[in-house]
Hints:
This protein is mostly helical. 72% of the residues lie in helices and 0% in strands.
Amino acid sequence: MTKNKYTPGSIAWLIVKYFSVIFCSFMAILPIVSCVITSFKTSEEYQRTTVMTLPENWLNFANYLHAFQKANMGRAFFNSFLILIFVLAGSTLIGSSLAYVLNRFRFPGNSLIRNMFTFAALLPGIAMQVSVYQIMQQLGFINTLYGYIIMMMGTDVMSIYIYIQFFENLPISLDESAYLDGANYFRIYWSILLPLLKPAIMTNLILKGVGVYNEYYCANLYLQDKRNLCTVATSLYTFTGPMGNQYELICAGVIMSLLPALIIFLLFQKQIYNGVAAGAVKG
């Protein structure tokens, strides 16, 4: 006679587990569903209905066309992707090369530099904006796209430590054998170690890319020409003002801003999953 593997305690735990998963999924999807519904409504329809009331016409794309033209979203997408390309490439090279130096070379001040990075991670970014703004102003980087790119290219502490953890799992014998074969330190980093960092690079590209694409505060502060130097995040604020907010146009802009990220995720979801999984178990 087989014993029933489901006890009252295990059944209760299964109910709690699946209920929490369904509830969290519902809470995550609800704002997107509400945004999609609102984006197809006219201004009058939005005023007289609730956010979850279905639109009368699902083929009403006037909000999308109006939002794309009035918010100059074509220029915003171009600027955002230009910023992403340069920032991700630059931060990857800076972070991985810095982690290579800190991990592979022992010199006076190595521990001090690591501790300073840890200390910098404890400081809120908003508290340092006065000093950063003064530096940007003295360098002439205010209201320039290249100045904003250089500022955003600054590697965050988390990515440096992720690269350091991956370097610690790469045997030092790789460096030694390549050095004996005549390769210099740069060649060792570029041709041997950097290709082995693909999981760490993918993890940091995801974290950094999402942060840069959604960044609003610094983009609004340093890119003051809102027409020509707008990003996707700042362009959505075209429809907010003291006389009221045009939420149907804001929702249309939000849905359009989500589409590029959704397309990239669908095309590279295998690489993204592999990179995040490898980044979670390394170290």
